[in-house]
Amino acid sequence: MSNPFDLAGKVALVTGANTGIGRGVALALAAAGADIAAAGRSEMDETQRQVVGLGRRFLAIEADFSSTQPVRRVTEEAVAGLGGIDILVNNAGVIRRADAIDFTEADWDVVIDTNLKTAFFLTQATALHMLARGSGKIINIASLLSFQGGIRVASYSASKSGLAGLTRLLANEWAGKGLNVNAIAPGYIETKNTAPLRADLGRSREILGRIPAGRWGRPSDLGGAAVFLASAASDYVNGVVLPVDGGWLAR
User: Fold this and answer.
1) pLDDT tens-digit map of 220-245
2) 85 vs 14, 31, 69, 123, 198, CA distance in Å?
3) Which candidate in 70, 76, 126, 238 could, as Cys together with 171 as Cys, close a disulfide (CB 3.0–4.6 Å)?
4) What is the tally of structural domains in the chain?
């Protein structure tokens, strides 16, 4: 019996794979057998070193996802460089923090454009290749704020709630055409985005007090969920937003 989690021969396009969650997901997919096209605006030497160390091909694509401008080029480079795209992971994202009463239009726009608008249009461009082939796996990196409101992150909460909605909509449209569209909702993970929270001892203590697992998550904790949603094991899973949160939402 073949291993339903085996990704040998597959190509995954992962955005924002230079560090944090993106790197953790890219390495998990590579360990399961996938070649990696990593797109983002920062250097990816360490991600490349680890992916190549696993015996997989790696393609770095420079792209700033604060606008839709690079979307078509990114998909074309991934297809040309690695022969196709079987898996798309929409991970690139930004966050801005301020009280709602003080939130600026600029901080609203950059987060919505990066986290929601560009993610949709990159999915659209990638899906053109997947629909023509009749198969593909799309994984959006959502958030606990796809379920909750949060505080001081108005545009981030709106973008991640929107991404959950898009996940369900695209699953409705594409499930019958061979594409699986799902999302992962990370809990409180040790990344650059959460550094201010971890540095605030009071806030960090509050967060840890609610997590049944008793610790912050690590990027590698998302690997199993990513491999599952990228593999044949999830062929009948559509429109799910899967929390990986140490039990936060169950509290």
Assistant:
1) 999 999 999 999 999 999 999 999 99
2) 10, 17, 19, 11, 36
3) 238
4) 1
How far CA 183 is from CA of 4, 45, 217, 220, 221, in Å, comes to 19, 27, 17, 16, 15
Q: Note down the domain range covering 147.
A: 11-242
Q: Is residue 6 part of a domain?
A: no
CA of 91: how far to CAs of 88, 219, 225, in Å?
A: 9, 12, 14
Q: Is residue 3 one of the residues assigned to a domain?
A: no
The tens digit of pLDDT for each residue in 63-107 reads 999 999 999 999 999 999 999 999 999 999 999 999 999 999 999
Share of residues in the chain with pLDDT > 70 (%) = 100
201: DSSP letter: H
DSSP 215: S
Dihedral, CA atoms, 152, 191, 78, 75, nearest 10 degrees? 0
Q: How many CB atoms are closer than 10 A to CB 223?
A: 20
Catalytically active residues are 156
Tokens of residue 18, six digits? 């230079």
In a domain, 249, yes or no: no
Band (pLDDT 50/70/90 cuts) for residue 135 is very high
In a domain, 1, yes or no: no
* CATH number assigned to the domain comprising residue 172: 3.40.50.720
Residue 66: helix, strand or coil by DSSP?
A: coil
pLDDT of 1: 64
Look up residue 113 and give its DSSP letter: I
Residue matched to tokens 């390495």: 27
